[in-house]
Design brief:
Number of strands: 0
Order of helices and strands: HHHHHHHHHHHHHHHHHH
Largest sheet: none
Oligomer: single chain
Helix content: over 70%
Radius of gyration: 21 Å
Strand content: under 5%
Low-confidence stretches: 1-8
Distance between the termini: 28 Å
Length: about 450
């Protein structure tokens, strides 16, 4: 079968969207949510067995973990976009080269970050807001979590490539098995054996190992990707294209690390001057960030699941299918965020209590933190969907602009300014204000580029 025949028969370009979109977005969403649950499950068991100092420690290590995830998504999402576009154009060999180069780059980066973390763990903990009380817990947790960084580095690209190949359900099953294993091991190590933060970290790494072994078993089954030795030879042009397409996802995830680091330090500084104290504010903010991460991962799952459909059909010139898929992704994301906002504003304590029962002072700040920080999360579906849409149609600059301006510039800057004016509550209001600004930027970018992306009707 030649490449043109393969393109003509690819379900991404032929199956009804009513079947295709759920088939790709449901496994992608489940996969990303389960990925976010790894750290949350740790926090729940640590909160139950150690208390809020343990939760503060996981929040201190969180920026390091997110940095590793950002690198993994740089290659994973970039490879998914690149492979989809090339397959849509009928370039199977170039697509396969992209996949093999991605695997190699991901593994190298994972090993590098692992070594750097081990060598600089204590100064990194201080940098990300550790106190004398939380530092020992953070060091114990972080030193073990770093062992799993090479696994994390290759897991996201592997899962992304499997999704593009049509095996999204296979990748989802692996994550579900790994997450289930993590929960069982957390209960055993933290509650039964009393290993505390170390037990939670070991459970996470073992869960990641199970997941990697599962997705590796799919590699011999690739239908539209060829894994051959010659494709692993570094191709600078391909690597640059993949990195460019994945840059928006990289910036989005990296920004969570930056924001968490800035917020931890501001909360420790201004929290110490408030009635709440430094450790309470840092711990409560960490829980809010994790809950927000689940919401973000749901909408990311919807749009990244749509990414192969958008990229393939755009590459094949099927613009009507491209537009319809994008619009469905935005609508689905927004409906979910409306429901999430209602739950957060009406039942905040039900979510917070999952992470352990603490003092009234702690509960008071945690509720306030969750409500304010996520007040305008309802508009994030448009911003995130627009960013990954640009990524999917080969527009890395437009994909990166909004994410960079919002996450790297505006949120940290607003946190610093408002914390100086309002104290600890200023850190919380910054996110809500910037969410509104980013929504406006997204709409403007979309309107200005729409006719350039789709120069002809269809």
């Amino acid at each position: 079968m030649n490449e043109k025949e393969t393109v003509a028969q690819n379900p991404l370009g032929t199956k009804p969207l009513s079947w295709l979109i759920p088939h790709y977005t449901v496994p992608s969403t489940v996969a990303l949510v389960v990925n976010a649950l790894y750290n949350i499950v740790d926090q729940i068991f640590i909160g139950q067995s150690v208390g809020y100092l343990g939760n503060a420690a996981t929040n201190i290590i969180y920026p390091i973990m997110i940095t590793m995830l950002a690198i993994a998504m740089l290659w994973g999402d970039g490879c998914a976009s690149y492979t989809s576009l090339q397959q849509g154009k009928g370039n199977r060999e170039i697509a396969s080269t992209g996949v093999c180069n991605t695997f190699a780059m991901s593994l190298i980066m994972g090993l590098t970050v692992m070594v750097i973390t081990w060598l600089a763990l204590e100064p990194l903990c201080w940098l990300f807001g550790a106190s004398e009380n939380s530092l020992p817990y953070a060091m114990a947790y972080g030193s073990i979590i770093a062992i799993g960084f090479p696994l994390m580095a290759i897991l996201n690209p592997l899962t992304s490539c499997i999704r593009v190949d049509g095996g999204a359900t296979y990748g989802m099953i692996g994550l579900l098995v790994a997450c289930g294993s993590n929960i069982v091991l957390d209960a055993l190590f933290c509650l039964k054996l009393g290993w505390g933060v170390r037990g939670a970290a070991i459970a996470t790494v073992l869960g990641e190992l199970i997941n990697v072994l599962w997705v590796l078993s799919y590699v011999p089954r690739f239908k539209n990707i060829d894994i051959r030795k010659r494709y692993f030879r570094p191709n600078i042009s391909v690597i640059k294209s993949i990195a460019g397409l994945g840059f928006a996802s990289f910036i989005l995830q990296l920004s969570f690390a930056l924001i968490s680091a800035v917020a931890n330090n501001l909360l420790a500084l201004h929290g110490a001057l408030s009635k709440y104290g430094a450790d309470i504010t840092v711990a409560a903010f960490g829980i809010t960030v994790k809950i927000n991460q689940v919401a973000i991962n749901v909408i990311q799952g919807v749009i990244t699941g749509s990414q192969p459909i958008i990229g393939y059909n755009y590459g094949a010139g099927k613009y009507a299918r491209t537009k319809a898929t994008f619009k469905i992704a935005i609508l689905t994301s927004t409906v979910f965020l409306v429901l999430a906002t209602v739950i957060i504003q009406v039942f905040p304590m039900s979510l917070i209590s999952l992470f352990g029962s603490e003092s009234e002072l702690y509960n008071e700040f945690a509720v306030m933190c969750l409500r304010i920080y996520m007040m305008l999360c309802i508009v994030n579906g448009v911003q995130n969907s627009t960013s990954i849409f640009f990524q999917s149609v080969g527009k890395p600059l437009q994909a990166s602009i909004n994410t960079f301006v919002k996450q790297i510039v505006l949120v940290p800057l607003c946190m610093v300014i408002l914390a100086h004016i309002m104290g600890v509550t200023g850190v919380l209001w910054a996110e809500a204000i910037v969410d509104g600004i980013a929504f406006i930027i997204s709409v403007v970018l979309l309107k200005r580029n729409w006719n350039k992306i789709f120069p002809v009707p269809g």
